[in-house]
Design brief:
TIM Barrel; alpha/beta; 10 helices; binds pyridoxine-5'-phosphate; 8 strands
Length: 238
């Protein structure tokens, strides 16, 4: 069985920076720590509203890391142009709505098949792998294949947010989707809302090759590091 890869999403390091519109914490420093501690990819989302990661971060991180960059983005002209210039290892196309707090659903590949296929061709020509972030839905999987994408990332939000009574059902839905996607020749990734309590069942699904995890890792890091940060400040006060 191939090794399951972890893409560490560091968007929320930039979210903290943007709370003060300053320079710390620096997402580049976080990317290098993630690389040092075993991340297989660095994942960042360049949103149209630049609410966390900005253009400068993308270029700097791409230049500094030795592991692959997975750039999450909406399939819109402005961001496509930047991505073609940055040349990440992979782009993950996601839907984007300005009012959402996070990527709330999967891409509707069936409805936007023509436009997504065109974007996919541009990336393919540039040697960039395309992954489509979709719900565990058979027709969206088929449309993803039709669009020419090599990979899909299954949105695990409905599994992660499910009550314990319905989580098993959500898990079964994801397992069926993974099996079908593999059968029609798609590489399968997964992510959204995964944490230390719910990751194992997803990690155990045969045919899932990569998980992208952000919020829970950054949340955990903040609390694990808080004691050290207070100790440092106390030392600097004397
Ligand atoms: N995968 C994709 C495509 C995403 O858009 C996100 C959120 O930015 C994630 C994974 C990570 O989700 P979370 O921050 O909940 O771990």
């Amino acid at each position: 069985m191939p090794k399951l890869l972890l893409g560490v999403n560091i968007d929320h390091i930039a979210t903290i920076r943007e709370a003060r519109k300053g320079i710390e914490p620096d997402p580049l420093a976080a990317a290098l720590i993630a690389e040092r501690f075993g991340a297989d990819l660095i994942t960042i989302h360049l949103r149209e509203d630049r609410r966390h990661i900005n253009d400068d971060d993308v270029y700097k991180i791409k230049k500094a890391i030795s592991i692959p960059l997975n750039l999450e983005m909406a399939p819109v002209d402005e961001i496509v142009k930047i991505a073609l210039d940055v040349k990440p290892y992979k782009v993950t196309l996601v839907p984007e709505r300005r009012e959402e707090v996070t990527t709330e659903g999967g891409l509707d590949v069936r409805t936007h098949l023509k436009a997504i296929s065109t974007v996919n061709r541009q990336f393919k020509k540039a040697g960039i792998i395309v992954s489509l972030f979709i719900e565990a839905d058979m027709d969206q999987i088929l449309a993803s294949k039709e669009s020419g994408a090599e990979c899909i990332e299954i949105h695990t939000g409905s599994y992660s947010n499910a009550s314990s009574a319905s989580q098993k059902k959500e898990l079964e839905r994801i397992k069926k989707a993974v099996k079908y996607a593999n059968e029609i020749g798609l590489i399968v990734h997964a992510g959204h809302g995964l944490n230390n309590d719910n990751v194992k069942a997803i990690a155990e699904i045969e045919g899932v090759e990569e998980l992208n995890i952000g919020h829970s890792i950054i949340s955990d890091a903040v609390l694990r590091g808080l004691g050290d940060a207070i100790r440092s400040m106390k030392e600097n006060m004397v």
